[in-house]
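Hi all, long-time lurker, first post. I run a small reading group and we've been trying to get comfortable going from sequence to structure in the token notation. Rather than ask abstract questions, I figured I'd post a concrete chain and ask someone more experienced to write out its structure so we can walk through it together at our next meeting. Sequence below, copied exactly:
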Amino acid sequence: MIVLETERLTLRHLCEDDAAFILALLNEPSFLQFIGDKGVRTLEDARIYILKGPVDMYSRLGFGLYMTELKDGNIPLGMCGLIKRDALEDVDIGFAFLPEFWGKGYAYEASAAVLDHGKEALGLKRIVAITSPDNQASGRLLEKLGLRFEQMIRLSEGAEEVRLFVPLL
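-- Answer (accepted) --
Happy to help. Here is the structure in token form:
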């Protein structure tokens, strides 16, 4: 199901057929470094990740992480969407793209569309973001989107600290 379209991109619901792509994305060195190890090692793990993560969130909340593809050729680039984490009061935006698609404006294009969708279509008043402390590129993107660093937080006791970005006032 297509959720959003931009000039160059289509954002749609993830489905079990996306398992091979998700397996590759979640095992990219940059994903492991900046987002974390989700323990997805096989196609079956990827299928379960899709069903228990994004697909479950679509049915419960009406949003989640979306497959982000180039309109031209339906080439998968990454995922971008909204997440509701138990540890955060607000919904947050999340994104991850394969490195070969970095620096081309795709993450900004997808994220800006997701933020607009969250506010306009879903009626979300405040959308935040988190990044690992060393993920400077994502921090710059969030600032370009109109968020600012507020503080370091932990999503659970004993977890590594992450940077919390909130909307500019």
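A couple of things your group might point at:
The longest helix spans residues 43-61.
The chain has a mean pLDDT of 97.
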